[in-house]
Specification:
Elements: E1 4-5, H1 11-20, H2 25-36, H3 51-60, E2 61-62, E3 66-73, E4 79-85, E5 90-98, E6 101-105, E7 109-110, E8 128-129, H4 132-149, E9 155-160, H5 170-181, E10 193-197, H6 201-210, E11 215-219, H7 225-231, H8 234-237, H9 240-254, E12 258-264, H10 272-282, E13 289-295, H11 310-322, E14 327-329, H12 343-354
Parallel strand pairs: 1-2, 6-9, 9-10, 10-11, 11-12, 12-13, 13-14
Antiparallel strand pairs: 3-4, 4-5, 5-6, 7-8
Bound molecules: S-adenosyl-L-homocysteine and iron/sulfur cluster.
Residues 112, 114-116, 119, 121-122, 164-165, 198, 219 line the site of iron/sulfur cluster.
Length: 355
């Protein structure tokens, strides 16, 4: 039998399965403490937990379902990990250092079916979803790496912006969030977690209804349907009007702000005219949205796209500001180590195929 990752269980699921076998909820709290506070890496280290509980858990679960395959460190402190899953698939996880703390960018799927024309992750179609355990394990692997450095560092922020479309792996993504925000465990502040989606409107309604207090980011990247469909084919099925309706619902239901992501692509979507159109589109919700202008990370296979000129970036920014739209130009991390999402993975796969 293939054992699942122990990190995939939410606290409630663990407590329920122990209860079913007649164990007290206290045992679940103990296991959880060993997993996420003491951060042991084997069942044998859980010395206070009842023997029968350990036996039961070790029959079905294990700690490590992936191995570190490649690790790249950047001068700015960014570390990019490539993990090899049990089935041989490779996934990426990135640790970034900020003034406000340490953030980790996690992968949710092996590949991505959305296939945006500028993205390295979409180069390879999705071969499978990651389990919730495989998503939590990425955070744990990074945290264990930090623990080894012995500098009392803790992952404080999470962005669900690695390979894959998190809303296409919805249930596992939700369980992942429940695990990492739980106060008995890693206790990462929900307000420090951001989930990014290419705009699967149906799931945005569901996400709003879930009332999980994490942040939502939308990969918009174009202010009109013609242009958005050209660069993101998902826009054909879910056009901007549908997406905006779902955002209105989200804003009403949650009273939270939304981040709008906008990659600036030279001479494609970076003219003043598009900035004006974007301001028009967001005008009625300008108190509640925040635009992140993202410098494009060039991808070899998508050579039709280049990074915008600095002057265009500043004009775009000024135009939004003048129209009262909150925005900022995103700081880059680890550009010297293939930081664009999915880039290290696709390069490594090519390299290994050539060998
Ligand atoms: N699938 C989700 C989350 C993963 S992508 C989504 O699309 O939102 C995370 C972010 O990285 C998205 O905003 C995506 O558009 C952006 N991105 C993808 N390729 C990029 C590149 N080459 N340079 C800069 N940002 C990129
Ligand atoms: Fe998938 Fe997001 Fe990349 Fe689009 S940008 S291909 S949705 S990972």
């Amino acid at each position: 039998m293939v054992k699942e990752s122990i990190y995939g269980l939410t606290f409630e699921q663990l407590a329920a399965s122990l209860l079913e076998r007649g164990h007290k909820p206290y045992q679940a709290s103990l296991v959880w403490e060993y997993l996420y506070r003491k951060r042991v890496t084997s069942f044998s280290e859980m010395s206070d937990v009842k023997k029968e509980c350990i036996e039961m858990l070790s029959e079905s679960f294990e700690f490590q379902t992936m191995q570190q395959h490649v690790k790249q460190e950047s001068e700015d402190g960014t570390i990019k990990f490539l993990f090899k899953l049990r089935d041989g698939n490779l996934i990426e996880t990135v640790l970034m250092k900020h003034k406000y703390g340490l953030s980790v960018c996690v992968t949710t799927q092996v590949g991505c079916n959305i296939g945006c024309s500028f993205c390295a992750s979409g180069l390879l179609a999705k071969s499978r979803d990651l389990s919730s355990g495989e998503i939590v394990e990425q955070i744990m692997n990074v945290q264990l790496h930090l623990d080894q450095r012995n500098q009392d560092e803790k992952v404080s922020h999470i962005v669900v912006m690695g390979i894959g479309e998190p809303f296409d792996n919805f249930e596992n993504m939700i369980d992942f969030i429940k695990v990492v925000i739980n106060h008995k465990g890693l206790a990462i502040g929900a307000r420090h977690i951001t989930v990014s989606t290419s705009g699967l409107a149906n799931r945005i309604y569901e996400f709003a209804d879930s009332q999980l207090p994490v942040n939502l980011a939308i990969s918009l990247h174009a202010p009109n349907n013609e242009l958005r469909t050209r660069i993101m084919k998902i826009n054909r099925a879910i056009p901007i009007e549908k997406l905006m309706e779902s955002l209105d619902y989200y804003l009403e239901k949650t009273n939270k702000r939304i981040t709008i992501e906008y990659i600036l692509l030279r001479d494609v979507n970076d003219h003043k005219e598009e900035a004006e159109q974007l301001a028009d589109l967001l005008q009625d919700k300008k108190q509640k949205v925040y635009v992140n202008l993202i410098p494009y990370n060039p991808v070899d296979e998508h050579s039709q796209y280049q990074r915008s000129e600095e002057e265009s970036v500043l004009t775009f920014y000024d135009t939004l500001k003048k129209r009262g739209i909150n925005c900022k130009i995103r700081q880059e991390h680890g550009t010297d180590i293939d930081a664009a999402c999915g880039q290290l993975r696709s390069k490594q796969i090519k390299k290994e195929k050539a060998q």
